Each structure stands twice: as structure tokens, then as C-alpha cells.
């Protein structure tokens, strides 16, 4: 497909995503230069939008050294305490349930990256979500004409109508990141900083060569990439529970077996092995409504050929995540939220059976952190309250979502009933 001046290829089946973006990832994983998204909005510092090169390799290496599966235990205590906090928020301020899941997701990642927790309705969380929304919007095809017709960037600056908006968002982004980095640096100076990703990153000699703005973006984009993604998945689980009671009942029975039918205790990480149905439900949440609806574009860096098609270097490829997730040739009854489909030998391979983390593999997937976050919260909320669906429910696919749900105690009393419209 030609969009603006560029050729895009949308891959519509797992087979071809696997053949090209996975097996040939060495040539299918670079990023296009987008004057607005990677240039003005990111100052060429966002790892998600960086082309192959020494800087990209260095950043990926450091991220993986700290954010890998072996470090999963680093996340566990934060997830544990934050999910208890989430239950507390659900119980005491149910009308803020949506902000509560945002706080949860953000606080886990802030604890890991900056060694600090976040409060409910902290305006800083709102600002962070504004910056992440801006970049997610900017990478959609044709979001900014200059990113499709890149010659426009040679217009004299005063004629670049997109520039003032982009520069204002860049300044806001830097401010949001800088506040956190300066805070941790202050604590490092006075000896009160907790060991976290930022302290290790800031001490690493490798990171010095790329300057201050790169440091801000390396740390800032982690909190950005790790917050909205997990928050969104949690909301999808709530939406799925509202839409289909069948799987919720099965999940409840599984939880009752482990924690007692009167929620005698909270589920813990150690219960995970006894709750395969919950693990399957979380994988199903990743499949059912992938976070990156049409994937994230990658650039082919050398000419290639596949099944008779010839692709020149520079062609953009993306995995068409939603189309694949909802294709009946890929999944039986794809619209149905049906955890049973993942009760198979690959259950514990968080990446197998869906493309939610992308063929380039989000560093967030490496240590199962998100899976733990989502399933601990679901288990705990379900086991304590029981999510129940009532009344008319409607889910518009995409970013617009109407949720009507209730939490009930085990004796059936209503804890809260709420209708939320997000769009
Ligand atoms: C529900 C949770 C998450 C989902 C669905 C998700 C999804 C994605 C996707 C689709 C990509 C693009 C991959 C590609 O282009 O091939 C990505 C990239 C990225 N994610 Fe995640 N992610 C999640 C959680 C996290 C977390 C918790 C972190 C950090 C702690 C994180 C950090 C990153 C980073 C740094 C990148 C850019 C990597 C690169 O381009 O080299 N993500 N994520």
C-alpha cells in the first residue's frame, strides 16, 4: 500500500509475520526516520523509533541487562504492594477505578525505574500519559503529513506548520522526564536513592557519550512504555469480564480452590503454578485486543524477496495485530474471550500464540512482568470482590470503550457499580 511517499506492507497472518519479521529480523527491524515523530517529538532519542546503529545497540544492551527474566524477582515485591494498594483504592474510591489501574501500572514501573511510588490522581501521571498518547498518535500512518512526505521538512522553519505543536510537546516531554531524573540524581547525591534502573543507568560509563537528552529519553521512555501498556491490558480484562461471564465463573472456581471460596486469603505469586486458567486468561487478554492495533512499523534495510514478491530496502513492514487477532483462520471464535484456547503446552511461554509484544519483542515481555501484574490484580480483585457483569454492555473496538460493571462481595452485597466511557 502506498501511504504518502512510502510503501507499507501490512502482514496479515502469523505465518508471514513469523517468516519475515521474526526469522529475518536482522534485516526487518530498523525504524524509519519520521521528521515529526522521531525528529521533533523525540529529538532522535526514543529507542522505539531509532534506526539500527551503535546507539540503538547500546541502549538495548543496557535495557536487557537490567530488564530481563532473571530480574523478575526485582519487580515482584513492587507488584505485590501495588496490587494491594489497588484493591484498597477499588474499595475506598470505586468511582476512581480507572485512575487506580493507571496508578498501579505507573507505580510499578516508577518503583523499578526510579525507586519511587505514585499516589492516586497524581497530576504527574496524567502528564506522563499525555506524552505517551502524543507519541502513539504520531506513529500512526499519516498522522503527520511530513512523516509521509519527508521532503516537507526542507521547508523554511516558519512554514513548517507542524513544528510549533511538536516543539511544545517535546518541551513538555523533556520536562516530565527531567523532573524524575533530577529527583533521582538529588537522592544519589545525598545518599538516599534506592537501587533502581536509573541509578544503575546513570552510573554506567557507556551512557555518558550520548548526552543529557538521550539519558532523559532512555529513562523516560521506559516509564512511558511500561505504564500505559499494562494499564490498557488491565482495562481489557475488565471489559472482557463485563462482556462474558462464562470465563469469569471458571476463573472464580479456580481461585476458590486455591484461596478458599470465601476469599480466605489473597492469591500470591507462588499460586501461579496452580492457576493455569488465570495465566491463560492473561495471554488471552494480550491476544484479544492487542495494544498496538496495527503493530509498529519496522523498516527493511536491504532488498528482499518472499514468495515471488520483491521488496526494496526502505519498505515499511508492520504486523497487522488486530486483523490477525480477530481472524477466524488464526483463532476459533476470535471475538470470544476464551482463555481455554491457551491451555496448551505453550502456556508458560508468555510470547507464544499472540503478537501483542511485537516480533521485535518489547523489553517489557522479557521478564513476564506484565503478566504477573495483570494476573495478580485480576486474581486479587476477583477473589476478594468477584467482578460481575450487569445490564447493557457495549465495547466499541479501538480506543473507545464503554464499561458497565459491578463489584460484589462474596455474600452478594454490591460494593460498587460503575459506568465508564472512555473515548
Ligand atoms: C502489556 C504490556 C506491554 C505491551 C503490550 C508492550 C508492547 C510493545 C510493543 C508492541 C512494542 C514494539 C515492538 C516492535 O516494534 O517490534 C514495544 C516496544 C517497547 N517496549 Fe513494550 N510492551 C509492554 C510493556 C512494556 C514494559 C513494562 C516496558 C518496560 C519496562 C516496555 C518497554 C518497551 C521498550 C523500551 C520498547 C522499545 C524497544 C525497541 O524498539 O527496541 N514495554 N512494546
TrEMBL record:
<dbReference type="GO" id="GO:0004497">
    <property type="term" value="F:monooxygenase activity"/>
</dbReference>
<dbReference type="InterPro" id="IPR036396">
    <property type="entry name" value="Cyt_P450_sf"/>
</dbReference>
<keyword id="KW-0408">Iron</keyword>
<keyword id="KW-0560">Oxidoreductase</keyword>
<keyword id="KW-0479">Metal-binding</keyword>
<dbReference type="GO" id="GO:0020037">
    <property type="term" value="F:heme binding"/>
</dbReference>
<dbReference type="Pfam" id="PF00067">
    <property type="entry name" value="p450"/>
</dbReference>
<protein>
    <recommendedName>
        <fullName>Cytochrome P450</fullName>
    </recommendedName>
</protein>
<dbReference type="InterPro" id="IPR050364">
    <property type="entry name" value="Cytochrome_P450_fung"/>
</dbReference>
<dbReference type="InterPro" id="IPR002401">
    <property type="entry name" value="Cyt_P450_E_grp-I"/>
</dbReference>
<dbReference type="InterPro" id="IPR001128">
    <property type="entry name" value="Cyt_P450"/>
</dbReference>
<dbReference type="GO" id="GO:0005506">
    <property type="term" value="F:iron ion binding"/>
</dbReference>
<comment type="similarity">
    <text>Belongs to the cytochrome P450 family.</text>
</comment>
<dbReference type="GO" id="GO:0016705">
    <property type="term" value="F:oxidoreductase activity, acting on paired donors, with incorporation or reduction of molecular oxygen"/>
</dbReference>
Amino acid at each position: 500500500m502506498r501511504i504518502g511517499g512510502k510503501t507499507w506492507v501490512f502482514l496479515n497472518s502469523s505465518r508471514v509475520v513469523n517468516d519475515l519479521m521474526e526469522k529475518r529480523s536482522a534485516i526487518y527491524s530498523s525504524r524509519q526516520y519520521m521528521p515529526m515523530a522521531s525528529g521533533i517529538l523525540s529529538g532522535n532519542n526514543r529507542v522505539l523509533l531509532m534506526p539500527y546503529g551503535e546507539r540503538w545497540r547500546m541502549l538495548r544492551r543496557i535495557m536487557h541487562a537490567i530488564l530481563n527474566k532473571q530480574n523478575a524477582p526485582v519487580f515482584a515485591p513492587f507488584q505485590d504492594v501495588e496490587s494491594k494498594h489497588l484493591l484498597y483504592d477499588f474499595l475506598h474510591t470505586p468511582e476512581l477505578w480507572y485512575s487506580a489501574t493507571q496508578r498501579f501500572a505507573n507505580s510499578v514501573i516508577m518503583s523499578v525505574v526510579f525507586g519511587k511510588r505514585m499516589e492516586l490522581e497524581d497530576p504527574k501521571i496524567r502528564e506522563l500519559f499525555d506524552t505517551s498518547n502524543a507519541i502513539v498518535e504520531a506513529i500512526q500512518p499519516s498522522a503527520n503529513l511530513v512523516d509521509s512526505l519527508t521532503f516537507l521538512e526542507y521547508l523554511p522553519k516558519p512554514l513548517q506548520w507542524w513544528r510549533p505543536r511538536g516543539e511544545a510537546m517535546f518541551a513538555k516531554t523533556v520536562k516530565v522526564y527531567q523532573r524524575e531524573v533530577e529527583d533521582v540524581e538529588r537522592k544519589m547525591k545525598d545518599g538516599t536513592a534506592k537501587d533502581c534502573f536509573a541509578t544503575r543507568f546513570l552510573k554506567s560509563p557507556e551512557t555518558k557519550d550520548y548526552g543529557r537528552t538521550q539519558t532523559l529519553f532512555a529513562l523516560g521512555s521506559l516509564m512511558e512504555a511500561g505504564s500505559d501498556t499494562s494499564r490498557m491490558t488491565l482495562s481489557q480484562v475488565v471489559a472482557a469480564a463485563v462482556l462474558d461471564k462464562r470465563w469469569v465463573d471458571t476463573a472464580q472456581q479456580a481461585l476458590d480452590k486455591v484461596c478458599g471460596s470465601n476469599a480466605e486469603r489473597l492469591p500470591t505469586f507462588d499460586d501461579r503454578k496452580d492457576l493455569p486458567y488465570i495465566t491463560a486468561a492473561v495471554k488471552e487478554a494480550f491476544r484479544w485486543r492487542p495494544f498496538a492495533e496495527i503493530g509498529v512499523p519496522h523498516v527493511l534495510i536491504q532488498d528482499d524477496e518472499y514468495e515471488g514478491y520483491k521488496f526494496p530496502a526502505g519498505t515499511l513492514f508492520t504486523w497487522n495485530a488486530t486483523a490477525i487477532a480477530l481472524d477466524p483462520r488464526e483463532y476459533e471464535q476470535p471475538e470470544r474471550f476464551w482463555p481455554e484456547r491457551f491451555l496448551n503446552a505453550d502456556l508458560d511461554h508468555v510470547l507464544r500464540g499472540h503478537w501483542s509484544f511485537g516480533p521485535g519483542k518489547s523489553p517489557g515481555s522479557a521478564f513476564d512482568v506484565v503478566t504477573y501484574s495483570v494476573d495478580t490484580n485480576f486474581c486479587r480483585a476477583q477473589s476478594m470482590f468477584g467482578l460481575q457483569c450487569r445490564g447493557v454492555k457495549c465495547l466499541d473496538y479501538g480506543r473507545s470503550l464503554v464499561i458497565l460493571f459491578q463489584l460484589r462481595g462474596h455474600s452478594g452485597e454490591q460494593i460498587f457499580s460503575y459506568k465508564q466511557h472512555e473515548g
